[in-house]
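Students often ask why inverse folding is considered easier than folding. One informal answer: many sequences map to the same fold, so there is more than one right answer. In these notes we will look at a single instance of the problem. The structure comes first.
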């Protein structure tokens, strides 16, 4: 009987001990605004070309080629910059190397969904509307904004580009 009481007490102490070591639950901070994340100035820093018509690629990198040295040739000039104004939903593109990838300079912008954006839509509801896919959401703390640009020949996509923009301070 005495041994049973000792075992019960030891078991109770172990249970209390394990409960005391239980980690505190982690709490996520407030949800960040994607609009705050994209707001500001961005400089084109890298360009990846993706051959979308390759059928036998084993991994994605088989179809991806870094063409930054060709498109962002420093001897030609400074790289393109883009500014997103969150208050007025306006954008402006400063011409530079790579700006021919976008082919417009000013207008309005918005996301396809402000909570969970997949696309940046330029000049929505105008005849010049263009949508570029976000490779990943951009938060205020993120250093890169990556847009997917498709080059078309008629209705057929021939090649895609990932335009890597670096946040400008």
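Output (designed amino acids):
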């Amino acid at each position: 009987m005495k041994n049973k009481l000792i075992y019960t007490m030891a078991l109770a102490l172990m249970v209390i001990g394990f409960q005391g070591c239980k980690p505190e639950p982690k709490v996520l901070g407030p949800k960040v605004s994607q609009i705050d994340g994209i707001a500001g100035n961005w400089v084109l820093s890298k360009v990846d070309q993706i051959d979308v018509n390759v059928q036998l690629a084993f991994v994605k990198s088989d179809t991806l080629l870094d063409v930054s040295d060709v498109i962002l040739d420093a001897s030609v000039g400074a790289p393109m910059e883009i500014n997103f104004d969150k208050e007025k939903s306006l954008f402006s593109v400063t011409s530079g190397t790579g700006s021919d990838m976008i082919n417009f300079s000013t207008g309005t912008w918005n996301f396809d969904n402000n909570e969970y954006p997949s696309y940046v839509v330029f000049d929505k509801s105008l005849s010049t509307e263009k949508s570029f896919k976000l490779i990943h959401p951009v938060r205020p703390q993120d250093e890169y904004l990556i847009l997917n640009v498709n080059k078309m020949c008629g209705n057929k996509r021939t090649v895609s580009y990932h335009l890597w923009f670096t946040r400008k301070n």
